[in-house]
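Recall the central idea of this unit: under ordinary conditions, the amino acid sequence of a chain determines the structure it adopts. In this exercise we apply that idea directly, starting from the sequence alone.
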Amino acid sequence: MAGAVSFLPPRAGGDPPPPDAYLTWLQQQFPAAYGNPALEATVWGDLADPDGDGCTNLLEFMMSRDPNLADAQLGQRCRLEGGDLVATYRETTATGHSVTWLGEWSADWTE
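Accordingly, the structure predicted from this sequence is:
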């Protein structure tokens, strides 16, 4: 299963997420590294995974996880239930629930 997550513009009549919620979180989590271009890809960038648990900073934020603690066991979980695939995950309230999660799957995907 592959996944894609992105911040999308608000729907008609919806409120946008707080503009600084994610940036504030990054600054709090990486006070010594935030803003240093040399460390963006490995420490504080959206796709960085400084704790090496397979979850990028953006996903750590969206799932209310600690990006400095390898806690892969707290990630998404999938199970089959009555022939349905059920996926569960934690979600932060810092975005005002204005983030859209998209799940992708393929019948022929392999690791």
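The longest strand covers residues 2-6.
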